[in-house]
Design goal:
By secondary structure, the chain is of the alpha+beta class. Helix content is about 15%, strand content about 40%.
């Protein structure tokens, strides 16, 4: 009896004062149990907070790298293999329908298609109405269906043999030219492959504690890179992707909306021209639109204006031509690389010159409509009935 208090203090369980057998066992100290409980609680709380921290701190660097790399790569990698076929709206159709014409305005693929995209690598994405709903597939240049219309949303164009597409579950992946998934659909959004790499948007974490603590936190999906096997690539490995082939890119400098200006930087973030512009766009074929004193002109790769700033709006050069607006509220025309006006300023909008035709917004009797013209400013489509 006299040893019981000592036994209890030593962690020993003893019998009462009756003659029942004595049962002895060593009890774990209470501090060990407390440490175990606190450790489990800490892990459950810490992991989602760590994930949130990583996302919040890595988005800016990964995002900047992703955008930077994608801009550089798109400058010199001509992934699209253009084919002189143009998707146009069929005039007089009861609902909006599309077909394909050639450079002369002759219909070569009748369709009709609910939607029709440009050809890339020999295939074009088209939409048809199947079983009462819109479905997307692919046709070849003869109009033959190559990939059955089975996608509920618009697919990407084929680049480097793959096109991004969305599954019925709403996730994005990549298909080959047989319509087979080669990178399973698991991304929130995807972009085309350039140089063997593609940018993808990875969904935010779905952990219950992350949702409670953060909600959506205003963070966009994380930007990542994958290769053609679907494996993630480190953004740090892509920062200097073929940097020697890339001209400097325009980077906005300034704080919020105050005193924003643009400088052209190389891969090391150095202002290669040693000066800034009011605004600027990317280089293409050695020329880039840049703004000075409220007007746009074009600079060369040395940063000097080779086409003086005299336009109120200017687009980048594509295939040797660029659309410009001469007056503040005026129409658009098109210039060549010498700055000579080749298409008079008479259109509400001009897209780009490709394979002999220019897509413009024309106007007749106060009604605007899309049309194709050639470099002689002759309307090719819709057929001119006058």
């Amino acid at each position: 009896r006299h040893l019981r208090p000592l036994h209890r203090r030593a962690g020993v369980v003893s019998a009462d004062d009756n003659d029942t057998p004595l049962v002895v066992g060593i009890r774990k100290p209470r501090w060990i149990r407390r440490v175990v409980v606190l450790a489990i609680f800490g892990i459950v709380l810490y992991l989602p907070l760590l994930e949130l921290y990583i996302r919040a701190t890595s988005y800016s660097s990964d995002g900047a790298t992703a955008i930077l790399w994608r801009q550089r790569a798109s400058l010199y990698n001509n992934a699209y293999q253009t084919i002189p076929l143009f998707s146009v709206e069929i005039p007089g159709a009861r609902s909006k329908e599309y077909c394909y014409i050639n450079q002369n305005g002759t219909v070569v693929i009748n369709g009709p298609f609910k939607w029709a995209m440009d050809f890339s690598e020999g295939l074009a994405a088209v939409a048809v109405i199947a079983h009462g709903e819109e479905r997307w597939g692919f046709i070849d240049t003869s109009g033959v269906e190559v990939i059955k219309p089975k996608f509920r949303r618009k697919t990407g164009d084929f680049q480097e043999g793959l096109a991004f597409a969305v599954s019925d579950s709403g996730r994005w992946g990549y298909i080959n030219k047989a319509g087979t998934w080669v990178i399973r659909p698991r991304f929130q959004f995807t972009y085309a492959f350039v140089g063997g790499k593609a940018q993808v948007n990875v969904s935010p974490p779905s952990h219950w504690l992350y949702a409670i603590l953060c909600g959506d936190c205003g963070l966009p999906p994380r930007l990542r890179f994958i290769d053609k096997t679907g494996q993630y690539q480190r953004a740090s490995d892509l920062r200097d992707f073929d940097i020697n082939k890339s001209p400097p890119i325009p980077v906005a400098i300034g704080q919020y909306l105050n005193n924003i200006h643009v400088e052209y930087q190389n891969g090391d973030g150095i202002n290669v021209f040693g000066r800034t512009y009011e605004s600027g766009l990317r280089f293409n074929k050695g020329l880039a639109p840049a703004k000075e004193n409220g007007l746009w002109g074009y600079i060369d790769t040395a940063g000097a204006f080779v086409i003086p700033p005299k336009y109120h709006e200017a687009q980048g050069f594509r295939n040797g031509f660029a659309a410009v607006r001469l007056q503040k509220a005026g129409k658009f025309g098109m210039i060549n690389t010498q700055g000579s006006l080749v298409i008079p300023a008479q259109y509400n909008w001009i897209t780009e010159y490709r394979d002999g035709l220019i897509e413009v917004t024309a106007e007749k009797d106060g009604i605007a409509y899309w049309a194709y013209i050639n470099l002689n400013n002759q309307q090719i489509w819709p057929p001119n009935t006058e």
